[in-house]
Amino acid sequence: MNTLIAKLRETAERDNATDLRAAFAADPERFSKFSVSFEDLLMDFSKTAINDEILDLLVKLADEAGVAEKRAAMFAGEKINITEDRAVLHTALRNRANTPVMVDGADVMPDVNEVLAAMGDFAEGIRTGAIRGATGKPFTDVVNIGIGGSDLGPAMTTLALAPFHDGPRLHYVSNVDGAHIADTLKGLDPATTLIIVASKTFTTIETMTNAQTARKFIASALGEEAVAHHFCAVSTALDKVADFGIDQSRVFGFWDWVGGRYSIWSAIGLPLMIAIGEKNFGKFLDGAYAIDNHFREAPVRENLPFLLGLVGFYQRVILDYPSRAVIPYDQRMSRFAAYLQQLDMESNGKSVTIESEAVTTPTGPIVWGEPGTNGQHAFFQLLHQGTNIIPIEFMIAANGFESDLRHQHQLLMANCLAQSEALMKGRSLDEAKAQLLDKGMDAGKAEKIAPHRVFSGNRPSITFVYDLLTPYALGRLIALYEHRVFVEGVLFGINSFDQWGVELGKELATGLLPVVSGKESAEGHDSSTKGLVAALLEAAK
Ligand SMILES: O=P(O)(O)OC[C@H]1O[C@H](O)[C@H](O)[C@@H](O)[C@@H]1O
Hey, whose CA ends up nearest to atom 11 of ligand 1? Predict the structure, then answer.
């Protein structure tokens, strides 16, 4: 085993380093030591079981793993996604300085700029009504059809940036379940509806199937010729888009060096741009670019994504916590955890190292979450008193957009801070007993009830604070998480940029389609699959 990892484990146990209350009691400077800021974004990780010695060891481990060199290789366009022989350059999409970024000897920036400008023209045309539907009416509704990276980014950000949404209404269809598209199209007027078909590969069965359903919705109401006016596409597979019958002038390309889960900055962001406008989309890119520079330049101990990665690695590998929860105290961020699930779990849910060996440490944690305060009334019981320790990442803006509802924002802030404080401090048996006795309970009953009211405390969390959730601030937050996933991936020793784990199910689904359609027998499948097929076919009779 890596000696630094062994040393980290030893240190964690020896110092009882997980005792957060003791750490706060011993050091009044703990907050200032273990919190960092970039612009108005503050990351407080003082409520995690980190100390100077552990941080030093983690920094050494990052040195040994070559995080800095690999970071440079990523930004420089080296083909660090070795299993697909691809560069990893989502950072080029928000390279606002426009410095050359070379892949295979060619600068990618002219292509990046060209697509961004074309998206801007198209988005503004839709927003102003200069581009209209087949019957001459302006578009009131836009339906984005895509799944995974071609859905989660634009869907999450459109919701998060609702206060900036002044374009047509946006709808997102992803699931192959016909219910999703049926419910979405119900109530929409084909004459004023624009369909965006978004797929990096343009082969994804869900998206292709929903696109055909949407095509019928347009063509049956307005005629085949209307399809050209009501469809556009976003893809890296321009030949396949042409086969679908979408006009070249309505196709916005991106490149194989943009991973699906990193593609919100590319033409996949078109629906967001239509919603909030070209200028605000530019600010969203600016925010990510600011974090890119910070990640590249800031010393490790002041570097938010780097530190977030180190703490995440420590919690996953050294302390062996299997999951982490992301809890934004922001209703508009309600899809943020879903977005992070793809970003993090598809990137770091791996069991093989970059050298094709079995990993020797745990890799990516299970990521999940919901906005506060809602989560408090649902699953926080387990976070406070359950038998697993689940580190939490809280986020809270200092200001809401609803200035007339400031008192509600104050309640939101108070709740966010109360949760991290409660998780850290807990309540001892003596405190619980004393509280009950104070309330007048008799001693015998207090003895029995008090254990149920004990909180172990020492439960870790990180809190992010920022001024206001603007396009810039959101761009910054997403890029921060992208680079955190990168840092952890390097420390795990894996390739964070492929996703072979989604393939097997896809292959088997293709084989099972004729079986569940009753065209082929289930022979050759296991008895469970055969039994399930029989039950479904019987019930569908
Ligand atoms: O954009 P597409 O090619 O349609 O792919 C959509 C999604 O499907 C796949 O199964 C991958 O796991 C995702 O990384 C991807 O974002």
Answer: 148
Q: Give the least confident one: 11-20, 106-115, 388-397.
A: 11-20
- Radius of gyration of the chain, Cα coordinates, nearest whole angstrom: 26
pLDDT score for 14: 81
Question: Looking at the predicted structure, is the pLDDT value of residue 242 above 90?
Answer: no
346 in catalytic set: yes
Domain co-membership, 319 together with 211? no
Count of domains for the chain: 3
263 close to ligand 1 (CB < 6 Angstrom): no
Claim to verify: residue 296 and residue 372 sit in the same structural domain: yes
Active site residue 506: yes
pLDDT (average), residues 134-146:
98
- Is residue 93, in this structure, part of any structural domain at all? no
pTM of the model: 0.97
Looking from the CA of residue 146, the nearest atom of ligand 1 is 4
What is the DSSP code string of 410-441? HHHHHHHHHHHHHHHH-B-HHHHHHHHHHTT-
CATH number at residue 530: 1.10.1390.10
Parent domain of 218: 105-276
One domain for residues 482 and 384: yes
